[in-house]
Amino acid sequence: MATLRNEELPSWICCQLGAREHYAIPRALHQTGQLAHLITDAWVPPQSALNQLPTPLFTNLRERFHVDLAQTSVHAFTGSLMRFELTQRLQKTSGWERIIDRNHWFQKRAVQVLNAIAPQHSSLNSPPTLFAYSYATLELFRYAKTRGWRTILGQIDPGPTEEKLVLEEYARHSIYESSWQPAPPHYWVRWQEECSLADRILVNSQWSSQALQQAGVPANKIDIIPLAYEPPEQARDFVRTYPSAFSAERPLRVLFLGQVILRKGIVALLEAAEHLRDQHIEFWLVGSPGIARPQQDKVHEQVRWIGSVPRSATAQYYQQADIFLLPTLSDGFGLTQLEAQAWKLPTIASRFCGAVVKDGVSGLILQNVTGAAIAEALLFCLNNPQQLVNFSRQSTSMEHFGLATLQNNLQALPYATI
């Protein structure tokens, strides 16, 4: 299918709760002149007084801005968001109750903005495209359909199929105590209507596409567009070195970075550590713990439970590790793969996330997420440090995941079918 020229493409209105992908989709659309409006929950320019607040209560709001969008039409509800979050804390809501309340709060205000800007688009030859991310979209799409607008859903995860996998994992490993709870049934009912109202559904991986189809989403509505990623400048010239052989004094350093939860394959990782107890390998678990640390693991000297670290501190772990391990049972993509590969860090990943690692080229792909499979892959790396050197040298090119590639992917969407 031929790609349409920019002037023939419809304008887009992006609705975004949160700063997902550092606003990559609206940024990509802005660079091609297609972004009409960004509607988001918070927007805090550098000169805002909020950046001067000493309290850590709203520290995360200081990241709610991107210079690429400084001159665009941005509609935000920053003050309302602050009041909402304070009220939620006072009412001591948490978990799904707070998530669902926040989604409803955002949609209510976003629809008000859509209604206000709709007259700007009524006289255009081509109706605008409304883009919004899953679970905070239903009321927006209902409104868009009354206007005859195109609708595109950004699906952030593999949906109910992923939840089913996690439920099964908890049933198999009930000793791992956690506060995790499945979503209430009405959450998925609303999501099914979001999918029904969407003209196109964007997912970030083949795995997510398969998972949505298992949940009943038609394959011909789904488009696979990987996440966009911009590596830090200091990673570009980073040179990684390996010893000629690993030893007790210089063990193979395996990095896991992310939420320490069952969905991320943490049980299989700990089983692999047990298999490799007598080998020159140590495991670094960096991330907020979502499960109770198992009693038997507390004496396992090869496993270091580092815990949560500031985002700015993650680079040192990518630099100091020898291999990155992502044994996830399900991820919409797994951005940490790109972060690791940007630092030329060989990666062992499952096949249940985005396609980043090239098997046998820049790392290894686990066909099954088991302790035995992870142990086998790590033993290969332990006994073949030269292969790690080769993996590092052939790390995945970040150009395949840049903003320019995202722009091309968005423009190549099959508009003729929507």
Automatic annotation (TrEMBL):
Organism field: Trichocoleus desertorum GB2-A4
UniProt name for this protein: Glycosyltransferase family 4 protein
Q: Short name of one Pfam family for this protein?
A: Glyco_trans_1_4
Record's keyword terms, sorted = Transferase
Q: Which domain of life is it from?
A: Bacteria
Source organism phylogeny: Bacteria, Bacillati, Cyanobacteriota, Cyanophyceae, Leptolyngbyales
Q: Using the record, list the residue span of the signal peptide; answer none if the entry has no such feature.
A: none
